[in-house]
Amino acid sequence: MTLWQQAIEDAVGKTRENINRFGDKFPHVGAGDKYILNDNTDWTEGFWSGMLWLCYEYSGDAAFRQAAGRTVDSFRRRLDQNRVLDHHDIGFLYSLSAKAQWLIEGDEEARKLTLEAADVLMRRWRPQGGFIQAWGEEGDPHNGGRIIIDCMMNLPLLYWAYGQTGEEKYRNVAVIHADKSRRFLVRGDDSSYHTFYFDPQNGDSIRGGTAQGYRDGSTWTRGQAWGIYGFALSYRYTKNPLYLETSRRLARFFYEHLPEDSVAYWDFDAPVNGETRRDSSASAIAAAGTIELLAHLDGTHPDRAYFEAALQRSVTSLVENYSTMGRPDAEGLLLHGSYSVRENKSPDDYMSWGDYFYLETLLRLERGIPGYWYERGQD
Fold it and tell me: Where does substrate bind (predicted)?
């Protein structure tokens, strides 16, 4: 059994145990070696649903299918109760739950729910400014003109909706937002801002900033990872070579700035000492994004061998040095993730998104199971 296979079997076994542990709750972040469990009210609940669908695709075990189906029912109720309107993370929530069910089973109700979710995300489009507002209500005095790099991972929901309906509005909004993100969130040295502020009335640029990073001008590693994967996915849907080039630039910066064990600290600019926090979830996201990037680089591309080697080193380190293999009672899959170091919120623990992208990475490497960001058969 290969290292990847061992890690997958360990992850699937832990996820099976977690079905009973979690019940109808959703794992959020760790606290004291246990997951904090939420109702379906935050931005992270889709990752548990996505893990259940991944495990079902891998194993065929009906227990995963039943649990995943219950999460989709929960997402149906959440949308009906209008509890998804104050942030942009609709793609994280519904791509990995309802859209996953559509991709795997062709369930028409799941497809309809996913399209409804795309319409909810469209309500965050601010035509005067030309962007998708990340957080808060329209007109929010602090966040009304704010975008964040995480949103690149929510755009695939809109691209997918265009492919399903043929309605140009979905694609147009996604492309405009991706172009603005590329221009203002990605810096000339291939690092990235976490957030950027615009005048909400006319879209004039104001300044870069951060909510999670070390300082406004630093490079928050999870944000850099979202950019790697998000721009590669925008390339998949649009074939705009600028998006692929942006993903490649972000990825090279990410790997060139890793420490010796090839797993990221929480911010590339944070002073490194014995207490500097890691973010294993950033490396898991970057690994999944690098696999997507490699899918679009042919064998003659000068960076292909570099990224293949970097990916191998990073995933091997995640499995050998950061996973909970050998700890059968562990609830999480990856140790040493960080949620918000600045606010001391779970700065060194399990992260539900880290677990999801770790499993997605392993399954894509070992079985070619690609996750739920695009329609099957596009490879």
Answer: 89, 150, 208, 210, 222, 226, 340
